[in-house]
Design a protein that fits this description.
Layout: H1 8-49, E1 54-55, E2 74-81, E3 87-93, E4 99-109, E5 114-123, E6 141-149, H2 154-157, E7 169-170, H3 175-182, E8 186-195, H4 217-252, H5 258-267
Parallel strand pairs: 1-2, 3-7, 5-8
Antiparallel strand pairs: 2-4, 2-6, 3-4, 4-5, 6-8
Length: 271
Protein backbone atom coordinates (compact mmCIF):
# COMPACT_ATOMS: atom_id res chain seq x y z
CA UNK A 1 0.00 0.00 0.00
CA UNK A 2 2.80 2.43 0.90
CA UNK A 3 5.55 0.82 -1.15
CA UNK A 4 5.82 4.06 -3.16
CA UNK A 5 7.60 5.57 -0.13
CA UNK A 6 10.62 3.48 -1.11
CA UNK A 7 10.87 5.20 -4.47
CA UNK A 8 13.80 7.55 -5.07
CA UNK A 9 11.56 10.60 -5.19
CA UNK A 10 9.89 9.87 -1.87
CA UNK A 11 13.13 8.88 -0.12
CA UNK A 12 14.64 12.24 -1.10
CA UNK A 13 11.50 14.12 -0.01
CA UNK A 14 11.46 12.32 3.34
CA UNK A 15 15.15 13.02 3.97
CA UNK A 16 14.63 16.70 3.22
CA UNK A 17 11.76 16.79 5.72
CA UNK A 18 13.89 15.05 8.36
CA UNK A 19 16.61 17.69 7.89
CA UNK A 20 14.26 20.66 7.83
CA UNK A 21 12.45 19.87 11.09
CA UNK A 22 15.46 20.00 13.48
CA UNK A 23 16.98 22.89 11.52
CA UNK A 24 13.85 24.99 11.92
CA UNK A 25 13.57 24.07 15.60
CA UNK A 26 17.17 25.18 16.12
CA UNK A 27 16.56 28.45 14.26
CA UNK A 28 13.56 29.04 16.50
CA UNK A 29 15.65 28.61 19.65
CA UNK A 30 18.34 30.89 18.16
CA UNK A 31 15.78 33.66 17.76
CA UNK A 32 14.34 32.92 21.22
CA UNK A 33 17.78 33.29 22.82
CA UNK A 34 18.27 36.57 20.95
CA UNK A 35 14.95 37.72 22.42
CA UNK A 36 16.11 36.76 25.93
CA UNK A 37 19.41 38.64 25.46
CA UNK A 38 17.56 41.72 24.23
CA UNK A 39 15.22 41.68 27.22
CA UNK A 40 18.16 41.24 29.61
CA UNK A 41 20.08 44.08 27.93
CA UNK A 42 17.09 46.40 28.11
CA UNK A 43 16.79 45.68 31.83
CA UNK A 44 20.52 46.31 32.33
CA UNK A 45 20.39 49.61 30.45
CA UNK A 46 17.34 50.80 32.38
CA UNK A 47 18.85 49.85 35.75
CA UNK A 48 22.24 51.42 34.98
CA UNK A 49 20.81 54.64 33.56
CA UNK A 50 18.78 55.06 36.73
CA UNK A 51 21.74 54.49 39.05
CA UNK A 52 23.27 57.27 41.11
CA UNK A 53 26.28 58.91 39.38
CA UNK A 54 29.66 57.85 40.78
CA UNK A 55 33.12 59.36 40.32
CA UNK A 56 34.61 57.74 37.24
CA UNK A 57 37.69 56.69 39.22
CA UNK A 58 35.53 54.29 41.24
CA UNK A 59 34.53 52.25 38.18
CA UNK A 60 37.61 52.27 35.98
CA UNK A 61 41.37 52.76 35.98
CA UNK A 62 44.24 52.78 33.46
CA UNK A 63 44.22 49.56 31.43
CA UNK A 64 40.86 48.52 32.89
CA UNK A 65 38.34 46.78 30.66
CA UNK A 66 34.88 48.06 31.50
CA UNK A 67 32.65 45.02 32.14
CA UNK A 68 29.23 44.81 30.57
CA UNK A 69 27.62 45.15 33.98
CA UNK A 70 28.95 48.74 34.13
CA UNK A 71 27.96 49.83 30.62
CA UNK A 72 25.89 53.06 30.63
CA UNK A 73 26.50 53.71 34.34
CA UNK A 74 26.30 57.45 35.09
CA UNK A 75 29.70 58.78 36.19
CA UNK A 76 31.20 62.17 36.90
CA UNK A 77 34.69 63.47 36.15
CA UNK A 78 36.27 66.76 37.17
CA UNK A 79 39.22 68.18 35.30
CA UNK A 80 40.42 70.29 32.39
CA UNK A 81 39.89 69.52 28.70
CA UNK A 82 43.07 68.89 26.70
CA UNK A 83 42.02 70.16 23.29
CA UNK A 84 45.56 69.82 21.94
CA UNK A 85 45.05 66.03 21.85
CA UNK A 86 41.42 66.13 20.72
CA UNK A 87 40.50 63.75 17.89
CA UNK A 88 37.40 63.02 15.82
CA UNK A 89 35.90 59.58 15.30
CA UNK A 90 34.87 58.95 11.70
CA UNK A 91 31.68 57.43 10.25
CA UNK A 92 29.32 58.14 13.12
CA UNK A 93 25.63 58.90 12.72
CA UNK A 94 23.48 61.47 14.45
CA UNK A 95 20.11 60.82 16.05
CA UNK A 96 18.48 61.50 12.66
CA UNK A 97 20.91 59.22 10.76
CA UNK A 98 23.17 61.89 9.28
CA UNK A 99 26.73 60.66 8.79
CA UNK A 100 29.40 62.66 10.54
CA UNK A 101 31.91 62.39 13.38
CA UNK A 102 32.13 62.18 17.15
CA UNK A 103 34.37 64.57 19.05
CA UNK A 104 36.67 62.78 21.49
CA UNK A 105 38.39 65.12 23.94
CA UNK A 106 40.73 64.04 26.76
CA UNK A 107 39.81 65.38 30.20
CA UNK A 108 42.84 65.72 32.48
CA UNK A 109 41.76 64.86 36.03
CA UNK A 110 43.12 66.52 39.14
CA UNK A 111 45.55 63.66 39.74
CA UNK A 112 47.02 64.01 36.23
CA UNK A 113 45.35 60.96 34.77
CA UNK A 114 43.07 61.26 31.76
CA UNK A 115 39.57 60.09 30.89
CA UNK A 116 38.30 60.28 27.31
CA UNK A 117 35.05 62.21 26.82
CA UNK A 118 32.86 61.72 23.77
CA UNK A 119 31.39 65.22 23.55
CA UNK A 120 28.92 64.33 20.81
CA UNK A 121 28.23 64.43 17.07
CA UNK A 122 29.28 67.01 14.47
CA UNK A 123 29.00 67.07 10.67
CA UNK A 124 32.00 65.83 8.75
CA UNK A 125 34.13 68.20 6.69
CA UNK A 126 33.34 68.46 2.98
CA UNK A 127 36.79 67.01 2.28
CA UNK A 128 37.28 63.74 4.15
CA UNK A 129 41.00 64.45 4.42
CA UNK A 130 40.39 67.71 6.28
CA UNK A 131 39.81 68.16 9.98
CA UNK A 132 36.23 69.37 10.54
CA UNK A 133 35.29 72.53 12.43
CA UNK A 134 34.97 71.42 16.05
CA UNK A 135 33.10 73.52 18.63
CA UNK A 136 35.55 74.43 21.39
CA UNK A 137 35.45 72.61 24.69
CA UNK A 138 34.85 74.63 27.87
CA UNK A 139 37.99 76.20 29.33
CA UNK A 140 39.11 75.86 32.91
CA UNK A 141 38.05 73.15 35.36
CA UNK A 142 34.73 71.52 34.60
CA UNK A 143 32.70 68.64 35.99
CA UNK A 144 31.37 66.37 33.29
CA UNK A 145 28.60 63.80 33.71
CA UNK A 146 28.27 60.96 31.25
CA UNK A 147 27.53 57.32 30.56
CA UNK A 148 30.47 54.96 31.01
CA UNK A 149 31.28 52.87 27.93
CA UNK A 150 33.93 50.25 27.15
CA UNK A 151 36.71 50.72 24.61
CA UNK A 152 35.50 49.97 21.11
CA UNK A 153 36.84 47.00 19.18
CA UNK A 154 36.37 45.80 15.62
CA UNK A 155 34.89 42.54 16.86
CA UNK A 156 32.22 44.22 18.98
CA UNK A 157 31.40 47.16 16.70
CA UNK A 158 32.06 45.73 13.23
CA UNK A 159 34.07 48.88 12.41
CA UNK A 160 37.47 48.29 10.85
CA UNK A 161 40.35 50.12 12.50
CA UNK A 162 41.75 51.63 9.31
CA UNK A 163 45.34 52.81 9.18
CA UNK A 164 46.79 55.80 7.38
CA UNK A 165 43.95 58.16 8.35
CA UNK A 166 44.38 61.93 8.28
CA UNK A 167 45.92 63.51 11.35
CA UNK A 168 43.72 63.52 14.49
CA UNK A 169 41.13 61.20 12.99
CA UNK A 170 40.38 57.68 14.27
CA UNK A 171 37.91 54.90 13.55
CA UNK A 172 37.52 53.46 17.05
CA UNK A 173 37.52 54.90 20.56
CA UNK A 174 40.38 53.18 22.36
CA UNK A 175 41.87 54.36 25.64
CA UNK A 176 45.04 52.36 24.94
CA UNK A 177 45.61 54.01 21.56
CA UNK A 178 44.99 57.46 22.97
CA UNK A 179 47.29 56.81 25.93
CA UNK A 180 50.14 56.23 23.48
CA UNK A 181 49.34 59.46 21.62
CA UNK A 182 48.84 61.61 24.73
CA UNK A 183 51.69 60.18 26.77
CA UNK A 184 49.63 60.00 29.98
CA UNK A 185 47.76 57.32 31.92
CA UNK A 186 44.27 57.04 30.46
CA UNK A 187 41.39 55.39 32.30
CA UNK A 188 39.90 52.39 30.52
CA UNK A 189 36.76 53.06 28.51
CA UNK A 190 35.28 56.50 27.93
CA UNK A 191 32.37 58.81 28.83
CA UNK A 192 29.44 59.71 26.62
CA UNK A 193 28.81 63.24 27.86
CA UNK A 194 25.29 64.04 29.05
CA UNK A 195 26.01 67.24 31.04
CA UNK A 196 26.71 70.09 30.94
CA UNK A 197 24.90 70.96 27.72
CA UNK A 198 27.12 72.10 24.90
CA UNK A 199 27.06 75.80 24.09
CA UNK A 200 24.83 76.40 21.09
CA UNK A 201 23.71 72.77 21.09
CA UNK A 202 26.78 71.50 19.31
CA UNK A 203 28.34 68.97 19.44
CA UNK A 204 24.99 67.17 19.54
CA UNK A 205 24.75 65.02 22.65
CA UNK A 206 24.46 61.29 22.03
CA UNK A 207 20.95 60.09 22.96
CA UNK A 208 20.30 57.33 25.47
CA UNK A 209 20.45 53.80 24.05
CA UNK A 210 17.10 52.29 23.15
CA UNK A 211 15.91 50.07 25.98
CA UNK A 212 12.19 49.87 25.19
CA UNK A 213 12.10 47.95 21.94
CA UNK A 214 12.52 44.18 22.09
CA UNK A 215 12.47 43.60 18.34
CA UNK A 216 10.70 40.80 16.51
CA UNK A 217 12.91 37.92 17.67
CA UNK A 218 10.12 36.20 19.62
CA UNK A 219 7.79 36.39 16.63
CA UNK A 220 10.50 34.91 14.42
CA UNK A 221 11.03 32.08 16.92
CA UNK A 222 7.34 31.17 16.91
CA UNK A 223 7.34 31.39 13.13
CA UNK A 224 10.21 28.92 12.80
CA UNK A 225 8.55 26.50 15.23
CA UNK A 226 5.30 26.68 13.27
CA UNK A 227 7.23 25.90 10.10
CA UNK A 228 8.84 22.93 11.87
CA UNK A 229 5.40 21.64 12.91
CA UNK A 230 4.06 22.17 9.40
CA UNK A 231 6.69 20.02 7.69
CA UNK A 232 5.48 16.62 9.06
CA UNK A 233 1.86 17.67 8.59
CA UNK A 234 2.56 18.55 4.98
CA UNK A 235 4.45 15.28 4.50
CA UNK A 236 1.47 13.25 5.78
CA UNK A 237 -0.93 15.15 3.51
CA UNK A 238 1.27 14.46 0.49
CA UNK A 239 1.53 10.76 1.38
CA UNK A 240 -2.24 10.39 1.73
CA UNK A 241 -2.81 12.23 -1.53
CA UNK A 242 -0.29 10.04 -3.32
CA UNK A 243 -1.92 6.91 -1.89
CA UNK A 244 -5.38 8.09 -2.96
CA UNK A 245 -4.20 8.93 -6.48
CA UNK A 246 -2.53 5.55 -6.87
CA UNK A 247 -5.64 3.68 -5.66
CA UNK A 248 -7.82 5.68 -8.03
CA UNK A 249 -5.48 4.93 -10.92
CA UNK A 250 -5.43 1.22 -10.10
CA UNK A 251 -9.25 1.04 -10.01
CA UNK A 252 -9.54 2.72 -13.40
CA UNK A 253 -7.10 0.22 -14.93
CA UNK A 254 -9.09 -2.92 -13.88
CA UNK A 255 -10.74 -4.53 -17.02
CA UNK A 256 -14.53 -5.11 -17.03
CA UNK A 257 -15.81 -8.71 -16.41
CA UNK A 258 -17.51 -10.75 -19.23
CA UNK A 259 -20.83 -10.69 -17.39
CA UNK A 260 -20.83 -6.92 -17.33
CA UNK A 261 -20.01 -6.81 -21.06
CA UNK A 262 -22.96 -9.12 -21.87
CA UNK A 263 -25.34 -7.11 -19.73
CA UNK A 264 -24.22 -3.93 -21.43
CA UNK A 265 -24.77 -5.47 -24.91
CA UNK A 266 -28.29 -6.63 -24.02
CA UNK A 267 -29.17 -3.20 -22.68
CA UNK A 268 -28.11 -1.54 -25.94
CA UNK A 269 -30.96 -1.52 -28.57
CA UNK A 270 -30.13 -2.77 -32.05
CA UNK A 271 -30.43 -0.44 -35.02
Amino acid sequence: MYRFLLSRQWVILTLIALVLVPTMIELGFWQFHRHERRVAQNALIADNLGAKPLPVEELTSPGHTVPRADYWRPVTATGTFDTAHEVVVRRRTSSDDRVGMHVLTPLVLRDGRVVLVNRGWIPAAADQHSYPPVPPAPKGEVTVTGRLKADETTGASGIKDLKGLPDRQVMLISSRQQAELIGREVLGGYLEQTAPDAAGGTPEMIPEPDHDSIGAHMAYAVQWWLFAAGVPVGWVILVRREKHDREAGTASDVPASPESDTAEAQATPSR
